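Weekly structure sync - notes
Attendees: PM, LS, DV (DV joined late)
Agenda: review two folding runs queued last week.

Item 1: First target. Sequence and structure tokens pasted below for the record.
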Amino acid sequence: MAVRWLCSLFGKPFDGGKRMDNGGPQQQQHMEQQQPYHPQHPAMMRLYEVQKEVASLGPQVCTFSGLQNDRDYKRLERELTRLLLEVDQVDTEGKPELQGARKRAAQEVEGLLRYLEENATHPSRLAIEDLSNEARALVDDRVVAPQRAGGVAEINDELVDALQGLILKLTQVKTEGRVPLRKARYRALTRLCAIQDVVEGRTQQQTLSLPLSGETHEAVHRINQVMVKVSVARSQLVALLMGLSGRDSCAHLSRLLTEMQVELDALDVSGNAAIRNYRKQVVEEINGLLKHVDLEVEGDDTRRYDLAQNNSIREIEAVRAHVVHLREGILRHCAVGDLSFRPKAELQSLLTHLDQVDTAKNPCIREARRRAVVEVQAVITFLDLREALARRQPGPAEHPAHRAVWLVLGSLSDLQAQVLGFDGKRVDKSYMMLEELLTKQLLALDAVDPHGDEMTKVARKQAVKFAQNILNYLDMKTDEWEY
């Protein structure tokens, strides 16, 4: 390994220390100057030691997903700076090849320093942190702080919706394929999804019908006592996941939850089905909390944030590739006026396939599936409109406003064909032209006066929705979203 690395620094193959035959003293002297220094040379040995340290730090730098104020960032920065100073102090004896080796070693360390800083200060990383802070403030205000003050956590649909909104925003953060950014987004998403699952899965205390026997009353009372503990544990778990817990640990919380399970198992509720069912629900909630405990450290030793390797994503990508193939065929036939190629049944089967894809409650996979569904539906609506336009036979008594709506729909069909085939970016002139033309069609529909004709009102409303869907689809195709 040492020989290979040293030779890569010199940029030439290593000859194993052998001397080649030569044609004279001058040529021999020139070749001696060009040959690599032996690995036992003091400068080479020192550079090799530096390389070993760089090799151990490299993976840590390439997967670091924190910020500049994190302890690990400061440690990595300190270690790399030290290595850079040590490389600078290597004595090259004025030899060009040693100087080249030292320069390349310095460049490698500088590259890691630059990569570390770029990821920690990347706008997407800062956006992830801002959203995480917003979520942290939300759960602290609604769940953690009230529980610590001896009150009741404010868990309602408003909180769940707010968490869902933050999750959606996180899925839209672009990572540019960088592992540290993917890892940071994955960690933030898994925690928010876990918190959402925790607050949605809470069990309410049950009021059972009277009269109850003394034994039955005692069992319900003890289950309710455990429910109070579960409520506290829920807040502790939320605090752990959001980094709001200064003293609690996963191990401590896991031990408390396990003790609650043991306490519930010891209850004799065999004589009452309602109480038995109540206990079962509480046990299930405890199990639900336990499965999220390990998330406090998840992301440090996992590669699940690389969704390109996810089987569900692979299924979705296979469907998208099939859609592209069908779409290209449809557009080719439509370009020559041939409407015979209508693979609607095949497209419908793709929708069914997408509906069966397991998202595992992962918001990124859910979004990838949603976008694939939109792509399929866009092709289906294009075929439906083309077919409707081909079948249309307006009569002499058709309302002028109704005819005007159909004229706009004809223009929208042509524009949709261009949108389906568009494969550019928002800065492209063709994108801006399509956006402008679609907006003009919306204005044309807005100018149609139905004069009280109900059929025209319905047709115009549908045409407006159709035009907006095309605009939304064009926007989706160019937003550079990634999973």
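Item 2: Second target, run right after the first with the same settings.
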Amino acid sequence: MPTNGLHQVLKIQFGLLNDTDRYLTAESFGFKVNASAPSLKRKQTWVLEPDPGQGTAVLFRSSHLGRYLSAKEDGRVACEAERPGRDCRFLVLPQPDGRWVLQSEPHGRFFGGTEDRLSCFATAISPAELWTVHLAIHPQAHLLSVSRRRYVHLCLQEDEMAADGDVPWGVDALLTLIFQSRQYCLKTCDSRYLRSDGRLVWEPESRARYTLEFKAGKLAFKDCDGRYLAPVGPAGTLKAGRNTRPGKDELFDLEESHPQVVLVAANHRYVSVRQGVNVSANQDEELDHETFLMQIDQETKKCTFYSSIGGYWTLVTHGGIEATATEVSADTMFELQWRGRRVALKASNGRYVCMKKNGQLAAISDFVGKDEEFILKLINRPILVLRSLDGFVCHRRGSNQLDTNRSVYDVFHLSFSDGAYQIRGRGGGFWYTGSHGSVCSDGERPEDFLFEFRERGRLAIRARSGKYLRGGASGLLRADADAPAGPALWEY
């Protein structure tokens, strides 16, 4: 499979939560640091970098400022260094409960404190020097075993998770990281949790929770007995092995999970490459040959479709569409035009893709009619986590409304019908739009919402009123945006 951005390891960004449940924050004014923030936002987001000297020390760079955390010999701390110097080098000392202790490498003192009274001068470790790692990336991704170079996916027949996939194809390759009780759970696409003995369970019990460790930019998952998840045996079954230190077998990459979609043409049949390289609407069921990985170019906002047979859709002679391209080019890019419950595709020749009488797709139409419209269905997000510019979408306590600025997230369930999605939350209640554009989550009947994939990794959600969902100044989810841009775009 060509790379072309298909397999992109996520840059691990995280927050550090202290013993009083406050996040380490880098302020723009004076480049000061404190631990006063109750939630994880841009100022509380950090990136771990290896020491350029190839030692065991690491660097903490503020994602918000682009500057490095440093500690002076007298214990003063700041985040003002544009380039990492000697005082920026820290040792990460994982504790038995999974929390981190940060020790200044040149000075040997420990970093901690509360609110604006942070220092790196402690000679012993107390609760004030303990930090919990909270990932700041979107929690839905693919997991790649570093040693086996295989993707983890749900094996329903064996009722297990295994690292044996050559490509992260289909819904079973989606994993959701759930942050709970300062630890992480691995949630499968059917909403079960991976226990350390390899079993899948319905509740996030203690043996289904893991602490995260970073090693050379990779992730390791440590269970409550101090052992690490690894692929085991010929099948690559994912469970805790014998090792109490992470080696290559225990390391994983998190990769971005691009949308995978199926398309249904006007003849009510699925677009497919089952019968060869010609892209045709001729199948009655959706399997791998009917699934396409969709990527949106950040600059042009046009998209590509990558097939399970290893080729991009591309425009060929006389307007035909074949899944044969191994590289992204102008002829593999299609403009998406959203038409309510349907979508039209415009090719690089300026013409619309239509379904011919024999079911084959071709870009030969100058106008959009029934044969140029398709149903586009997202298949690899049966459970959905949404993030706005300000934070994640989460149920508001004691209310039927939804917050859009939280550092924790709720997982919502998606269903699909005739080009529209229905969103179900906690307790099985459906999302619906109430008075004055409010969005509520306790509906007895589903309301249809339209998803429009507008940017890479971001979608707009359109309510029945025609307005788009956005996060408001109050932090509440509302359906009152006129355009699918800015706060009306959601990372999914």
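Discussion on item 2: The mean pLDDT is 93.
Action: LS to circulate a short write-up before next sync.
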